[in-house]
Write a structure and sequence with these properties.
72% helix, mainly alpha, 207 residues
């Protein structure tokens, strides 16, 4: 026995789980909105709008079509790392860590001095791949709230608050529910510090 039973079914090859985590971070670091911004405007998306390298800012600054495409690509990062983990029979523990690493890569990309997005789209992708039935149910109130409020932050709150409740009602295990809560917390913390940094930048008049 190699002592890694709780993290990997490949007992003698825990490095596969670690490689999956690294892959998740690198996948998350792919700067979708940055590339679109450079191609469409020649500018750094992080210097436009709210300074966020994500689909919401791209939607407002690069156009609706670009924003939707960027959202789909970023969500695909989350879907891809979960499907990869399942394909190679990576244990739930390593799969969860790989998902968090993907969000971290999106939020703090190694290719762009660790300043990226907030991770909403990646988180949604992970949820869709891990819990497709529950995600489909949560999609209904999420879409309705978006149509009513037309506010992505409030809509994300509805999605991320409703999801663990639905998971609990469907008998999802406690560790997975905790994971479903942890990912939005990462998004919220990133949003808080990015928003505070933006206010300081506006206050000092710097760009």
């Amino acid at each position: 026995m190699c002592g890694f039973e709780t993290l990997s079914r490949h007992h003698c090859f825990p490095s596969m789980g670690l490689l999956t985590i690294l892959l998740g971070y690198l996948l998350g670091s792919f700067p979708t909105a940055y590339i679109f911004g450079k191609r469409l405007t020649g500018k750094d998306i992080r210097r436009l709008g709210d300074g966020n390298m994500g689909a919401r800012n791209a939607y407002h600054e690069l156009g609706h079509k670009a924003g939707i495409i960027i959202f789909c690509i970023d969500a695909a990062k989350g879907v891809s790392i979960i499907l990869f983990s399942k394909l190679f029979d990576i244990s739930q523990g390593y799969m969860m860590l790989a998902g968090l690493a993907t969000i971290a890569g999106h939020n703090f990309p190694v290719f762009l001095q660790f300043r990226g997005g907030r991770g909403e789209a990646v988180t949604i992708g992970i949820l869709m791949a891990l819990l497709p039935v529950e995600s489909l149910i949560v999609a209904a109130p999420t879409i309705v709230s978006l149509l009513i409020w037309k506010n992505v932050i409030l809509t994300s709150a509805v999605c991320f608050i409703t999801m663990p409740v639905i998971c609990w009602l469907f008998g999802v295990n406690g560790s997975m529910i905790a994971y479903v809560i942890t990912m939005p917390v990462m998004v919220a913390i990133t949003h808080f510090f990015r928003a505070r940094g933006l206010r300081k930048t506006i206050g000092t008049g710097t760009t």
